[in-house]
Amino acid sequence: MITKINPVDIVIIRFNTPDLDIRCVGSIIGFTKYSPYNIILHDNSVVNQKLSYLWNMYFEKSDSEFICLLNNDTRILFDKGDWLNKMMETMLSDDSIGAVGPSTNNCGNPQKMKGEWLTLPDTKEEVDMEKIYGKQWQLSGFCLLIRKEAWKVVNGFSYKYAHYGQENEFLHQIQKAGYKTMWRKDAFVWHIGKASSSKVKGFDDKRQREQANELYQLSLKK
Questions:
Q1: Would 3 be classed as within a structural domain?
Q2: Is 198 inside a domain boundary?
Q3: Alpha-carbon distance 93 to 82, whole Å?
Q4: What CA–CA distance (Å, rounded) separates 83 from 40?
Q5: What does each C-alpha distance from 47 to 42, 51, 55, 137, 189 come to in angstroms?
Q6: More confident site: 59 or 212
Q7: Is 194 part of any domain?
Q8: Which of 92, 185, 188, 209 would you label with 128, given CA atoms 20 to 30 Å apart?
Q9: What is the pLDDT of residues 159-195, one digit of tens each?
C-alpha cells in the first residue's frame, strides 16, 4: 500500500537545456498523481561534473528511502500521471526490489514500446530484467526509481564512467547483491534522448557509448 510515509526525491540534472527543464518540471508538477515527492534540480551547465558524482552526492544527502533519477529531456504526459504510483507500487511490493523503470517511446533497450507506443498494458505487468534479459540488458537510465538501501550496499555509482554506463554497472552490482530490477510495463515516461549530449561541443556520442560498453563488459567479468 502506498502511503504518505514514502516520499520520493526526484533528482534531475540539467545541462544547457532550459526549455526542456521547464517542460520536464512543469509536467511533473502538473500531472504526477503520486504524493509526496520532492524535485531536486541541479544545474550542471558550468562545472559539468560526472553524473556518478552528482547522483552519489544527492543519494547521500537524501532523507528519502526512494530516489528517482530522471533525465531532463523527459516529460510526464497528462494521461500518464500515475507513472510514479505504479513504479512505487512495484517497489513496495517486495523489499528485495532495488530498482524500477517505466516504459517509454525512446531508449536503447526493451523498455521502448513498439508500434503504438502509447498503448500500454491494461493490467499491472512487471518484468524482472535479470531473469528475462540477463546481464546484457539493464534498465534504461533515463528514469530509474532506486531503493536507497540498495545504493548503500554497493557503495553507489562507479566514478570510472564518463557520460554513459554508470547506471548499467550499478544495476548489475545490486543484482549481484540479491536485489531485483523491475520494468513496470504499464507505467510510462516520454523521452527525447541525447538532448544534453548534443550541447557538448565535439561530443562523439557513438564513441562514448562504445567506451561505456567496454567498461561495463569488463565489470561483468569480475
A1: no
A2: yes
A3: 16
A4: 18
A5: 11, 12, 15, 31, 28
A6: 59
A7: yes
A8: 209
A9: 988 777 899 999 999 999 999 999 999 999 999 986 5
Which residues lie below 8 Å from residue 57, measured CB to CB, with a gap of 6+?
A: none
pLDDT the model gives residue 212: 57
Q: Which of 112, 127, 113, 109 is nearest to 164 (CA)?
A: 109
Residue 1 has pLDDT above 50, yes or no: no
Cell of 123: 493490467
* CATH code of the domain containing 77: 3.90.550.10
Higher-confidence residue of 26 and 196: namely 26
Give the C-alpha separation, 103 to 167, whole Å. Answer: 17
At residue 120, the pLDDT reads: 81
Half-sphere exposure of 136 (CA within 13 A, CB side): 4
- The count of structural domains within the chain is 1
Give the pLDDT band of residue 136 (cuts 50, 70, 90): confident
Taken as a whole, the chain contains a residue count of 222
Rounded-to-integer distance, Cα 87 and Cα 209, Å: 27
Classify residue 84 as exposed, middle or buried by CB count within 10 Å of its CB (0-12, 13-18, 19+): buried
CA 211 to centroid of chain Cα atoms? 20
pLDDT mean over 119-123: 81
If residue 22 lies in a helix (H) or strand (E), which one and from where to where?
A: helix 18-31
